[in-house]
């Protein structure tokens, strides 16, 4: 006679102090000994929900049931086999029809033999188990939503960060800390993308450097901690991985909660609309600057316009995605002007190429011409504002701003701490008095004090933001002028430099060019 045991535990359902695998095995072994059974094998599903039947040990056991290789199955109770009412009853019927005894040791009084005992009780019990897991799921989801609204970290792994528990007063909370082993990977991805590389090229570079993919990194971490990673992992980088990293604002220190939600219990995850997601900026240390992240999103949006990319990849055109027709608004496509020695890169209106003169005019322009006129345009801007730019004593101003910021931030911290203490002291003072008149006096006194503190805090925050804004303007002017100089000096423009300063180039029917920059130097220098 072949007797087997089945054991299942889900930490989500049973909690940290719930039934363990060992406890269930002991119950089965004790029952087997008392009834002269010899258990040949224990089928164990560790940390699997009873609401899913996609469990490796259960599937293996049911395959043996199908092949009539088992005579008796021992389990602690009905919930170990599953918690989904209808499916559990069907499973019990299949085992019963196969002529196999299923004994649920702790059900009723002294156990329940499904093959021979009254099964009305089973219907009630499996309904209760189903209700139980749904009720637990509702409570967990409600608690999770509350935690998300408070900006608390409940998410699992995030590539580039470690989730650690830290003490905050008497309580503990989870916090994201940069994973220094992965920081170089994130930095390389953004740096390469801003230089004009595509997702596939970045994947090739990461593979050559043997940097672990997100899933492989999690698998390795699980293995180092003596745990099994159940999901599939990929050792090769794929384009969708790069897209997710480039698009994720976690890398600028923003925590975004309620991104996805399961449909029902163990159901398919669906994306939540961005307007309904909750964002908490400056939640943790950033790996990428906000400026670089913003630029990456702009590049992403530009590359999404496929009409601007037609025929561009083969000959590596400099101005892919930047150049448009000033007459009809369509993108200009890269074309080749044939010469005896070398072909020349050029551009022409997509509308004209596709539909001829009825849609737009023929205004072919060579790429070398655009490079020449762009350099002249940048020289003109640099020369026009040279005096103003040279008058910006950037290092002295930075030092002055740093000192002022330090003072303001220190004062802000003191004021905020005093405001907290005022609230605490107010409660203590009110508790000491008994008369309503005295309480009103205390309320009024503290109300005025708290209002004054709030005004000071608000003023300090405005000053801090203003100083940060001025400091940012200094950096932007100097940074852009440095890029101007670099483009002017190089024979061919660097894609990353173009992405940082250039919004678009308009080409008109008479080959007149209009360069539109992302930054307006004139408006920035007005602050000086």
Supply the key terms.
alpha/beta; 528 residues; three-stranded mixed beta sheet; disordered C terminus; flat; 3 domains; Hect, E3 ligase catalytic domain fold; Rossmann fold; 18 helices; single chain; 17 strands; five-stranded mixed beta sheet; 15% strand
Arithmetic mean of pLDDT: 78
Number of domains: 3
Number of discrete helical segments: 18
Oligomer: single chain
Please state the overall shape, judged from the principal axes of the Cα atoms: flat
- Name the CATH superfamily classification of the largest domain: Resolvase, N-terminal catalytic domain
What is the CATH architecture assignment of the largest domain?
A: 3-Layer(aba) Sandwich
Radius of gyration: 34 Å
CATH topology of the largest domain: Rossmann fold
| % residues in beta strands | 15-25%
First-to-last CA distance: 93 Å
**Which strand order spans the largest sheet, edge to edge or round the barrel?**
2-1-3-4-5
Top CATH class of the largest domain: Alpha Beta
Return the structural class. alpha/beta
- Level of helix content? 40-55%
């Amino acid at each position: 006679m072949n007797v087997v045991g089945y054991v299942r535990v889900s930490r989500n359902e049973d909690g940290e102090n719930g039934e363990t695998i060992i406890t269930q095995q002991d119950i089965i072994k004790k029952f087997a000994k008392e009834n002269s059974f010899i258990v040949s094998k224990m089928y164990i599903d560790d940390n699997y929900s009873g609401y899913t039947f996609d469990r490796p040990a259960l599937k293996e056991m049911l395959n043996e049931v199908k092949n009539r290789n088992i005579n008796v199955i021992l389990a602690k109770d009905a919930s170990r086999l599953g918690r989904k009412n209808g499916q559990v009853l069907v499973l019990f019927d299949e085992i019963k029809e196969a002529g196999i005894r299923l004994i649920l040791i702790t059900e009723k009084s002294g156990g329940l033999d499904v093959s021979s005992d009254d099964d009305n009780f089973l219907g009630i019990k499996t309904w209760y188990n189903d209700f139980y897991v749904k009720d637990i799921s509702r409570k967990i989801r409600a608690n999770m939503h509350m935690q998300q609204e408070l900006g608390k970290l409940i998410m699992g792994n995030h590539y580039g960060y470690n989730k650690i528990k830290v003490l905050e007063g008497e309580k503990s909370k989870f916090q994201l800390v940069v994973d220094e082993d992965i920081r170089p990977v994130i930095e390389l991805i953004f740096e390469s993308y801003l230089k004009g590389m595509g997702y596939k090229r970045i994947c090739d570079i990461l593979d050559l450097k043997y940097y672990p993919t997100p899933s492989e990194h999690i698998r390795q971490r699980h293995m180092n901690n003596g745990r099994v990673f159940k999901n599939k992992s990929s050792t090769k980088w794929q384009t969708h991985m790069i897209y997710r990293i480039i698009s994720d604002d976690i890398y600028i220190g923003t925590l975004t909660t309620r991104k996805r939600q399961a449909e029902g219990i163990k159901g398919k995850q669906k994306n939540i609309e961005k307007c309904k997601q909750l964002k908490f900026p400056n939640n943790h240390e950033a790996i990428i600057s906000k400026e670089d992240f913003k630029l990456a999103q702009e590049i992403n949006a530009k590359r999404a316009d496929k009409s601007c990319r037609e025929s561009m990849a083969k000959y590596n055109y400099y101005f892919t995605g930047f150049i448009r027709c000033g007459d009809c608004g369509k993108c200009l496509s890269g074309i080749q002007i044939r010469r005896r020695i070398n072909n020349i890169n050029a551009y022409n209106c997509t509308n004209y190429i596709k539909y001829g003169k009825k849609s737009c005019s023929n205004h072919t322009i060579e790429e070398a011409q655009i490079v020449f006129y762009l350099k002249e345009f940048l020289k003109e801007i640099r020369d026009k504002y040279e005096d103003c730019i040279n008058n910006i004593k950037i290092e002295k101003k930075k030092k002055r701003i740093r000192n002022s910021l330090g003072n303001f931030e220190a004062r802000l911290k003191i004021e905020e701490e005093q405001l907290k203490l005022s609230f605490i002291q107010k409660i203590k003072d009110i508790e000491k008095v008994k008369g309503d008149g005295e309480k009103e006096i205390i309320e009024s006194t503290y109300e005025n004090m708290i209002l004054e503190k709030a005004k000071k805090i608000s003023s300090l925050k405005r000053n801090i933001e203003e100083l940060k804004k001025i400091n940012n303007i200094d950096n932007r002017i100097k940074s852009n002028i440095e890029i101007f100089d670099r483009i002017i000096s190089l024979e061919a423009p660097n894609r990353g430099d173009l992405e940082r300063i250039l919004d678009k180039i308009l080409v008109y029917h008479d080959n007149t060019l209009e360069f539109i920059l992302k930054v307006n130097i004139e408006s920035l220098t007005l602050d000086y």
